Amino acid sequence: MHIVDGALSVPVLATGAVLTAAGVALGLKKMDYDHLPQVGVLSAAFFIASYIHLPIGFSSVHLILNGLIGLALGWAAFPALLIALFLQAVFFGFGGFVVLGVNTLNIALPAVLVYYGCRYGIQSSSPKVAAIWGAIGGAGSIILTTLMVAVSLMLSGEGFALAAKATFIAHIPVMIIEGFVTASAVLLIRKVKPTFLGLDEERVYG
Amino acid sequence: MARWRFILTVLCMCSPFMVQAHNVISGVYAIGSTIEGEIGFSNGDMAAEGTEVIVFDSLGNELGRVKTDAEGLFAFEANKRIDHFFYANLSSGHVMEEMLPADQLPESLSGDAVKTDNGDSKQASKTASLSTSGMDQAELEAMIEKAVAKQVKPLRQELMQYQAKAGMQDILGGIGYIFGLCGLGIWWRQRQKEKQEKANA
């Protein structure tokens, strides 16, 4: 998921940086500052998630968690992910500094879209329905991210079909796992701490 | 109860799988006038067979193209003693960029290279020529270089993998930064609030 320095053309990099800056500004503006600790915790979760590889058959995958981050944070996913991606570049050498804008956009925009798409679903009074919407959010954010990665590569000259196929196939296991993880996270958080997902307790239980 | 189960699940997920991530790792080194290189990923996979590596000089002129073999290795025959730049696109946003400085190539190659003064190697070749009087010196030098390169190769690979691996300090450091930034944000927020209250009062 992390595109490295040198893979993208300058216009793509510039567009990514500008859109990310806009997203971060909007995120900071819309962020409820009482929830700042949540933003930090989820940012930290994303930071480590990319480092933990789950072996699957011949290959290994890592969680991205942008669906869950989107559901919990909305637009604040932009600043949270920007900081996590920046620190990943510093400490792990994932991605790079020039591509930071594009990488943040590719991961945070799907998170925001999932927030708008699945926010009402996970508030459903039926836990089953909520879990399904959580799974859709988890898997959907990965699908959107792979598509955006493919578009970034295509705009920089790589064949879209080829890039999209390679990235998409590589991430099918991630989509499935993210779907499960997000669904169970939604179920758990609904029980333990509904406010974490911006849910109204009375609405869930009432 | 549920909370404990959650924490336990997370811990179980984390502990056994502390492997490094999917970074491209690569290296190039000169063996005589041949430049050998390898491309792989930090999880141990090597680059796909037939990955095209483009070779440039320092001005960006293409010097040639070579393809990797099944083990992610490639070889390029240098015919000038200049800096060689290598570039390969492994798709999905993975690219490899490496540079081999001119001074690692043998002096016998022509080129607009800067003259490097290495008395040591002259001395070494002198002693070598003394002991093996009959043998062609250039041939011997090439043989030594090849032998040393062969010995050093596994060490290089290990070192590369080691460098690509992030340690516990990196993880804890990153988390610390995030929480620190959060703390700063909360502190700043608190100050704003206090200011507002003062202004209102």
From TrEMBL, chain A:
GO terms for cellular component: plasma membrane. The chain crosses the membrane at residues 7-28, 40-61, 68-91, 97-118, 130-156, 168-189. Keywords: Cell membrane, Membrane, Transmembrane, Transmembrane helix, Transport. It is a multi-pass membrane protein. The keyword Transmembrane applies. It comes from the Bacteria. Pfam families: CbiM. One of its GO terms (biological process) is transition metal ion transport. It is found in: Cell membrane. InterPro entries: CbiM/NikMN. Signal peptide: none annotated. PANTHER family: METAL TRANSPORT PROTEIN HI_1621-RELATED (PTHR34229:SF1). This is Cobalt/nickel transport system permease protein. It comes from Marinomonas communis. The lineage of its organism: Bacteria, Pseudomonadati, Pseudomonadota, Gammaproteobacteria, Oceanospirillales.
Automatic annotation (TrEMBL), chain B:
The chain crosses the membrane at residues 171-188. Residues 121-133 have a biased composition (Polar residues). Residues 108-133 are annotated as: Disordered. It comes from the Bacteria. Keywords: Membrane, Signal, Transmembrane, Transmembrane helix. Residues 1-21 form the signal peptide. This is Nickel transport protein. It comes from Marinomonas communis.
